[in-house]
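Hi everyone,

Forwarding the result from last night's run.
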Amino acid sequence: MDLYREGDPIADTRAPDGPIETRWERHRFEMKLVNPANRRKMTVIVVGTGLAGGSAAATLAEQGYQVRSYCYQDSPRRAHSIAAQGGINAAKNYRNDGDSVHRLFYDTVKGGDFRSRESNVHRLAEVSVNIIDQCVAQGVPFAREYGGLLDTRSFGGAQVQRTFYARGQTGQQLLLGAYQALERQIGLGNVEMNARHEMLELVIVDGRARGIVVRDMVTGEISTEMADAVVLATGGYGNVFYLSTNAKGCNVTASWRAHRKGAYFANPCYTQIHPTCIPVSGDHQSKLTLMSESLRNDGRVWVPKAKGDQRSPREIPEDERDYYLERIYPSFGNLVPRDIASRAAKNVCDEGRGVGPTGLGVYLDFADAINRLGRKAIEAKYGNLFEMYERITGEDPYEVPMRIYPAVHYTMGGLWVDYDLQSSIPGLFVIGEANFSDHGANRLGASALMQGLADGYFVLPNTLANYLASSGPLDKVDASHPEAVAARTDVEDRIKRLLAINGDRTVDSFHRELGQIMWEHCGMERSEAGLRKAIDEIRALREQFWQRVRVPGDGEGLNQSLEKAGRVADFFELAELMCIDALHREESCGGHFRAEHQTPDGEAQRDDDRFAYVAAWEYTGTGEPVLHKEDLTFEYVHPTQRSYK
């Protein structure tokens, strides 16, 4: 069957050339500026208030722009960034263990399996050192070592200790820093904060993004908000799998609405499976709980050597245990990157050596660390994580090993952006996890927080100013503009259509079934036959959805079923594109593992000759998306077979 057609290739025309060490600084100098008096006349909409959106809104307002901020949560500080636990990377080299901007750049390109842009990644590594200073100045309580310097620890995919952390609450503390900066600007009148508002459409006027259509989730009122530019900082799309580590509210709707209006969607098949999640316990679950990757610093991962060994872990002697990550990857051991650790866990469970009631689990054991460092030291590092695990499972990880298993966590794909973080729609900027730009096929642990704050504090404020200065005075438009009226009408019609179906199945039942299809066929391992089957099943299920879903209530007020229905409708379309993208990419790389493309020892086998490109998909509305390829070139980190052995 014809699933897609190929269009013209694309290029990142904003990317600078020359020595990579000076590209960003030269680019910053060459960009145009908006003088302070003119900034006060310009309005920027920022959708999302996590680390990327909160930091961007605060920084733009500090510069003098009029900012309108929107989030669907009841407070900006409830953004999902608050759930990040383990830490944030930065090339400070406080440990004097050989770290540098270039090493962080190298580790990130290699960790992404050579499917990211060198220029973007080097900029990220450069900016990382400024992020820590910014956050310390805001009062973020990073852990400190005895001498008073900021403490760091190791994370997967690196052999240096570059991860700064605040116990197991790093995301929460960083978000509170950005939130306080945002609240300051709200208090000064520079940011208009609109909580409990969901973006449902993008407004394009004369080919430029000029506004959004939002629904007040409390009153049901639909309004059209106009501006000089729009910034999306709306996170990832992992909830397409239903069960994931994401908060239940996380969705793809803002990005997907922009995609339907012409923004390319890049690399949607790149999904990160996190290796240290609490295993699924039954069909009753609506989400999964992440246990921080930082636990792999001191915890040792193992399973019994014998298949079907049902003994208590403390009854299994050392010589009958398989510390398989340490055995297979001696150089990195338990700190191999997430994609590799996840597939290794799946492999031992597929062999029948998994633990727990379902057999889908491995042990994360702290006995050695407690014996070596003492219980108090482990409590100081991980106490809140251990407490969370015990509350959920009823098991004390100080006494028995944790049980973990891989689960959907982060999405590397997202809306395509150029070096300036601008999408294929002029005036629409996309930052943080909502874009695709920095992580390639696999994200290294502790790099999500780094990218979100780099984009919001340091990159976007420069590139957005250049866009506004280069565009000249934009015509003033309001909600009465024909394009704005048409966008609002589309939203109203979609809501009416969902409410009118009045079928016999709940939204959640469709979402759960879609998630099962995706996990089975587009999860940790994919194959041509499985992906083709998934596409057929997704299309059939989507047709059922529009005939049988039941959305009780109406649109005049709080209606969570209506909210979910709109999001799941978008997940159906995204899921099909994810499978098409995974099917067309006939190679394995990072989080995309095709069973037909692996080395003799089971590692991912890339095909650089055919697939060293970004897959940017254009929406056509006909069911056949158009593939635009952006070739990737590597001048400084030459692609090799990725090895952590």
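The chain has a mean pLDDT of 96.

Cheers,
N.
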